[in-house]
Write a structure and sequence with these properties.
This protein has helices at 2-73, 77-107, 113-123. By secondary structure, the chain is mainly α. Helix 1 packs antiparallel against helix 2 (77-107) and helix 1 packs antiparallel against helix 3. It is rod-shaped.
Amino acid sequence: MSDNFGRYFVNAIVAGLLGRITAVIKTEIERAKKEIAAKLKGIGVGIGLIVAAGVFAFFMAGVLVAAAILGLATVWPAWLAALTVAGGLLLIVLILVLIGSSLIKKNKDLTPQESIDNVKSVVGLS
């Protein structure tokens, strides 16, 4: 009789332990989904900023063309103003590209490392 009791006791402990591990793994999977979603959002924002920089670069090209035309048409003031505007647009383009590429580099690794490390520590692999 005590042998059956011991077996039931061990089975209950093992079942409880497996239930706990399963719960932790499910929790970490949800956490991994959130972590990946956050990284994808960062990549999306970075891509959006680079697209915005492309739009500004397009307008900058138009301004540079206007500056060249105005530079040939008049001697000084009009094209100087146009080149100043082009320089400002170039500065905006450079800032957006730097921020966007930084966000993409920061979030390009989609591995949910925090969740993997937590599962490993719970299961006892590390």
